[in-house]
Amino acid sequence: MPRSGGPSRQPLSPITSEPYSGTLYTMNRPVRAERLTQLPVPDKHRTRGEARPSKRGLVRTLSLVLVHVLVLVHVAHWKITGRTFTPLEPSEAMQTLELGHVNAGFVLFILLILSTLLFGRFFCGWACHVMAYQDGASWILRRLGIEPKPIRSRLLFLVPFGAAFYMFVWPSLTRMIKGHPFPALEAHFATESFWQTFPGPIVSIIIILVCGPILVYFLGSKAFCSYGCPYGAFFGAVDAVAPGRIRVNDACEQCGICTQVCTSNVRVSEEVAKFRAVVDTGCMKTLDCVSACPKEALSFGPAKPGLLQWSAIRKKKRRVYDFTWTEEIVLLAVFLVSGYCWRGLYEEVPFLLAVGLSILTAFAVLILWRFVRSRDFTFQRHVVRSAGRPTRAGLVLVPLLVAYVFLTGHSGFVQYHAKEGVRLLKKAEGTADPASRDELVDHSLEHLQLADRWGLVSAGGTHLQIGSILRSKGDLEGAENEMRKAIAADPSMRTPYFELASLLIRRGALEDAKPVLEELLRRDPENAQARDWLQRLEKDIEEKYTP
User: In this predicted model, what pLDDT tens digit does every residue of 337-372 receive, in sequence order?
Assistant: First the structure.
């Protein structure tokens, strides 16, 4: 977004309606006053001198590129051989907890936690693909003359811990509450369905855009790491007891360059001045501060873990936040409501993307609220309202945020009707009284049709449910159309193929049913039921045309 003019004013915090009066210091580069951030620190921690280029920046970039090359090799191996190792993705550990499948992702996650226990959060800084998108986005934005500053929130900091609880603790907890035993563990290190748990290309691109440039622009570098990543919650908690630290020696002159070059939003100069080491669990050990220090005063090595200095940390650390407690509560409430709107929307939005979209919605609502209430309002160095009137930047930013909040509300409307339709349908299945069951089915159909009518994307499961209801009501033509829509929306589902083939056979269209089953077998060659159906169908066709 282009910079907008306006009257001369004092430096402003990233999201504020009033000039900030505290002592300021620079980040990322020793540059003009317009690049000042809002975090107050003593004068002795202000940047003096220019940072040397990081010797580790190129090495870390190559490391992150290598990660993506290895992913491509993994996918290529699966495509060529049809079978490969299960995904090396920490989220795969959910299958171990829910199904008992000990897979490569689970083993990797355990090894990463153990390595973090010793060396700290090296994985986040050197091998995480999402972090690579954020760093790439920050680099591109800087090239465009945009250097977003980190926005600090008290309550949204808890989101990664809530996400981690939901992904890795809640399934086992609900199983215990219901009295179900933990599933027996079994090795599951190879798979033929490598991409089954991953989103498609369009959703993947949206994930990269949301967790990369969009969140980085609105919340600063490492935004998703700070406010959305459930794995970061684990690594951050373990980092608190890790002896591996960025530490300082007596050569330090408190020039502040270490803070200036840190992309993890850590105030390194303050940390080493107070604790002789970086104790912030947000430190991702990129080692840029070590490389850039003009006095070579910083190094990586064993030091007293942050958890053992907790009393001193609480006493000496002074946090500066961008929101009042009321605003924090509003942020968290909007985040939770937005999570309902986005989670699983159209059967496409995965959990982590829903987290990113919900964070964006929460901040969009707060930015709009401050814009409406304030005569003068600045966000990320852009004056969006001055003397009660929107600037050019405001005329671009505000309509975009309004449209996005409206999209979230629309998604919530569609989500509600889709979920309510499924709920009523399940309730009808367990109802013995025919009249009550029919009434529930009718209401379910109304909700599902509303979700389909207003939805921006066709959902295969919704069409399948509508088709099943229409079939039960005797509307075979309508049911057939819905099954075709279900297949078009999600070709990976098996049930619509069987349902469509059954409907076609029922009306005697055997030749039309045959290619439906053949397509299912093409997509799922090991489907014994489809093969059996096709053999019987071919036999019926042969008998039909045999004189």
Answer: 999 999 999 999 999 999 999 999 999 999 999 999
Q: What is the pLDDT of residue 32?
A: 32
**Which CA distances in Å does 420 have to 407, 436, 462, 471?**
20, 17, 11, 20
Three-state SS at 430: coil
Residue whose C-alpha is closest to residue 15's, from 361, 355, 364, 261: 364
Alpha helices in 197-250 (DSSP H): 201-209, 215-219, 223-227, 230-239
| Strands, sheet with 377-379, edge to edge from the N-terminal-most edge strand | 15-16, 377-379, 382-386, 389-390
Taking the C-alpha atoms of residue 442 and residue 434, their distance in angstroms, rounded to an integer, is: 12
Q: Which residues of 163-177 are buried (b: 16+ CB within 10 A; e: fewer)?
A: bbeebbeeeeeeeee
Domains and CATH numbers, the chain: 15-50+242-316 (no CATH), 458-547 (1.25.40.10)
**Alpha-helical runs (H) found in 228-350:** 230-239, 257-261, 268-275, 288-292, 310-316, 325-342
Could you give phi then psi for residue 473, rounded to 5 degrees?
A: -90, 0
Task: Please name which of 453, 504, 512, 444 lies closest in space to residue 477, comparing C-alpha atoms.
Answer: 504
Q: Specify the pTM.
A: 0.85
